[in-house]
Write a structure and sequence with these properties.
The structure holds two protein chains of two kinds. Chain A contains 14 helices and no strands. Chain A is mainly α. In chain B, strand 4 and strand 5 form a beta hairpin. Classes of the chains: A mainly alpha, B alpha/beta. The interface of A and B includes residues 113, 221 and 244 of A.
Chain lengths: ~280, ~375
């Protein structure tokens, strides 16, 4: 039997990947999530527990706060880098790009441990600050919220820079030249031409970072010193320590639902579709 | 309890230094033994060979934890076992309750012998997923109390203890008890605790005045109240025991609740760190056989082989963790035994974590713990 529909025939090369994802990702994920809603009264009790105990609201709010904070910080730090990359001569741009990508080669676990060593009280950063007499006593840079921010920004920044760079590079240079020919100053050209055209990159990068940031687990666990708890950390603890997979799954569902809600609101406010280039 | 078992226990207590020689002699006479027989009894305790006949065929699949730990097990137990018995040992990993459940319930058990933590054993035994240990094959004599159960004999024991920076607290001024650990006035400094309830709750109760032999069942509300009252002085709740060297070497903290393994390692490497076995906790892991294991008999033979003190002494020198046979400690250099939580000279200062209590209460307590640390 041959496949008539050209659409289906076009999708044929995707079958191996789709099959792989279906078996090793979609099926186990659904099984796991079903645990949270199965069991009738037990499931109801689970969600009631998540609703009633202040811990979960506190943790959910903290997770969102951190993810948004990291996204904003990466945007502020990454935008100038992507801008520089876009206008650098090709050879220098390539070199800079390698520097941006290099952190990907080191595992997240390794980087988190390195930050612990660098940022601790007797670490390099504090020693330099003390030697320069900028501070009198070691500054608590790690095992707190600040440490979590530093670690997460370091891990997520390349994603932001690459998202921005992809869009900025596609901006037609003739548009910028046209603006200059029409008498716009550099600032005006940036503000009224370049910046609006780069917004799809801002939207895409922010979305990626926000969603990825919500799932962070090992970095806040190591760098937070127990003072920061994210939803992913709770899920891990329920699976590995408390052996309550039902509650872990219910918690995952709550995180997914909250994420979708935020994305819908984000879409309404910023019309992401348009910025991402959909017609 | 049979007379033989009582004699065994008495000899063990004497050997471990729990009772004096005089008490030993008095009680032994009370059991109807003549004083002249006692030296022979103790001698037999120290040297009796395994009764088990271990020759066999086929193979046994052992599931253990990998790394340098599994390498040491292979050298001390699995390789010589293969040579002596002709039974091939296949090593795999990593022990996992969920996997054992799946194997047993689908009647497709791939592992014959599993190196399981105490709670794992109790949870699985409760669900009827384990074979009973066959003590007609395994020599239970000489195994320390708490190091063997109906479901298996001890594999290794490991400890938790209080460690400190010798720069912050030089010799003579070091903390000695958990009450000292939670005493910020007497011992000013930064503190770190392991971010899990075992055995932080026990340590809190000891600091609050509960005797080590009266810990279980744990008074959970009292433990949490004590911890809440002292939470502010704990600067770091660390997630992984691999963080202990970083925290102590970097002098991030002055006092730490840590594993005796990591603290020993640090002290031996020359870091300014010391620790005490006093009021420490030790936990027992066990060899277990999943129900319906294909090579059950071979698994029992390997367990029997494992308990021989000579093998265990060799193992403990390769990998610093406690072993279940009390005789093994006499066969290794004292310096090596000093590092082990269950060596006779150390174990008397510690308590054993009650895995049975924790298996029943871990879910509920962990939830409270997460709320305590995260809230």
């Amino acid at each position: 039997m041959s496949i008539r529909s050209p659409l289906l025939r076009g999708l044929l090369p995707l079958v191996p990947l789709l099959g792989f994802l279906l078996i090793f990702f979609v099926y186990p994920t659904c099984r796991m999530l079903l645990l949270g809603v199965s069991g009738g009264p037990a499931a109801a009790a689970r969600f009631h527990e998540l609703w009633a105990a202040p811990l979960y609201r506190h943790v959910l709010a903290e997770t969102f706060r951190i993810s948004i904070g990291v996204t904003v910080a990466c945007l502020l730090l990454g935008y100038p880098v992507a801008y520089t990359l876009t206008f650098a001569p090709p050879r220098r741009a390539n070199l800079l790009l390698v520097l941006v990508i290099t952190p990907f080669w080191i595992s997240i676990l390794g980087r988190s441990f390195t930050w612990m060593v660098l940022l601790q009280r007797a670490g390099v950063v504090n020693q330099v600050l003390l030697a320069l007499h900028l501070v009198r006593a070691p500054v608590p840079l790690v095992y707190n919220l600040l440490g979590v921010y530093i670690g997460m920004i370091h891990i997520l920044l390349p994603f932001m820079i690459l998202s921005l760079y992809a869009v900025m590079r596609a901006i037609e240079p003739s548009l910028l030249r046209a603006a200059e020919n029409l008498g716009a100053s550099d600032w005006q050209t940036f503000r009224r031409v370049f910046f609006p055209l780069s917004l799809p990159g801002v939207a895409a990068g922010s979305l990626i970072l926000f969603v990825v940031g919500l799932g962070f687990f090992i970095t806040p666990a190591l760098l937070g010193g127990g003072k920061v708890t994210t939803v992913a950390m709770l899920i891990e603890a329920y699976i590995h320590q408390a052996f309550d997979w039902g509650l872990a799954s219910a918690l995952a569902l709550v995180l997914i639902a909250a994420t979708v809600l935020v994305l819908v609101a984000y879409n309404r406010l910023l019309t992401v579709d348009r910025m991402l280039g959909a017609r | 309890m049979g007379i033989n078992r009582r004699v065994d226990r008495l000899v063990e207590q004497y050997y471990l230094g729990r009772i004096s020689r005089r008490t030993f002699v008095r009680r032994a006479c009370g059991l109807g033994l003549s004083a002249a027989a006692l030296p022979g009894l103790v001698g037999e305790f120290l040297t009796s060979p395994a009764r088990a006949q271990t020759k066999g065929t086929g193979e046994v699949v052992v599931c253990t934890w990998g790394g340098s730990y599994a390498d040491a097990q292979k050298k001390a137990f699995f390789d010589p076992f293969e040579q002596e018995t002709g039974i091939r040992v296949r090593v795999t990993g990593i022990p996992d309750v969920a996997k054992i459940r799946a194997m047993v319930s689908t009647n497709n058990v791939e592992w014959d012998l599993v190196d399981a933590e105490g709670e794992m054993m109790i949870v699985l035994a409760h669900d009827g997923m384990l074979e009973r240990a066959d003590y007609s094959v395994i020599d239970r004599k000489g195994l320390m109390r708490g190091s063997s159960s109906d479901w298996g004999v001890g594999s290794v024991s490991y400890g938790y203890a209080m460690g400190w920076s010798t720069k912050a607290y030089p010799q003579g001024r070091e903390p000695k008890t958990w009450a000292d650990f939670f005493n910020a006035q007497g011992f000013p400094g930064r503190r770190a605790m392991y971010n899990q309830p075992i055995p932080a709750l026990e340590f809190a109760l000891i600091a609050d005045g509960v005797a080590m032999d009266k810990l279980y069942p744990l008074d959970v509300p009292r433990a949490f109240k004590y911890l809440r009252d002292h939470k502010a002085m704990v600067n770091i709740w660390y997630k992984e025991t691999t963080q202990i060297p970083t925290l102590m070497r970097g002098q991030e903290v002055d006092l730490i609740e840590g594993t005796s393994g990591r603290l020993t390692e640090l002290k031996r490497s020359g870091a300014p760190v010391d620790f005490t076995w006093n009021q420490g906790a030790w936990l027992q892991s066990y060899w277990i056989v999943p129900k319906g294991a294909k090579n059950r008999d071979n698994a029992m033979k390997l367990m029997a082989y494992y308990t021989r003190p000579q093998n265990e002494a060799k193992f403990a020198e390769l990998f610093a963790s406690g072993v279940p046979n009390a005789k093994a400690y006499a066969l290794m250099p004292k310096a090596a035994a000093d590092l082990l939580p269950t060596a006779p000279q150390n174990v008397v200062h510690e308590f054993q974590v009650d895995s049975a209590w924790w298996a029943q209460n871990l879910d509920a307590v962990t939830k409270q713990w997460l709320a305590f640390v995260g809230g």
